[in-house]
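User: Here's a chain of 220 residues. Predict its fold as tokens.
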Amino acid sequence: MLANHTPNFKQKSLIIFDWDGTLMDSIGLIVESMRHAATQHGLTVSDEATRGIIGLSMQTAVATLFADVPERHDDLVQDYGAYYVQHCHDDTLFSGIAELLHSLHAQGKTLAVATGKKRQGLARVLPQTGVEALFSVTRCADEAAGKPDPLMLRQILQVTGKAVSDAVMVGDSVHDLRMAHAIGMDSIAVTYGCATADVLADEQPSAMVDSVTALAALLV
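Assistant: Prediction complete.
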């Protein structure tokens, strides 16, 4: 179910976005990369399980998926990363996201990214999108704490000088929503990424949308 209140998101001055599955259409490659890494070590992992860890730091994700083989975690992370880097140049923003970001920026909104990626990973893909200059601040898991710890949200608020009530977190995973909930921040769940509507609704987001068009209708 959704939260009991529905904020006026158009009045929010700080919009914080998750990256993978919210702005970037990269879920398929993440799943493929994890499957490849597992195969390299004679292991198996379901696509559903991989989708469930998207948003976490990669070390935490691998430890969650392959808890029985801790001695292979570092190699799995390395193999995942190597495959992802080799193929990530084909990833693009979801259709309509660039236009949405430009519209929000033109309205004077402060835009930010809070991602489970490492800084190196975000720096590899963000410049190729053409929207890097629109973000006032970005925070990565290796600069703060991994989701659902809200430290990166606290850091974004501190850098921008905004209050929790000024902000909304937009994400496609339960980890995004739990991070926002931990500090009382409103959230918008998007169902076009890694998690289903039923799974996201259980986290009681402030609102839920099934498309970029619907997201734009809430924010712009």
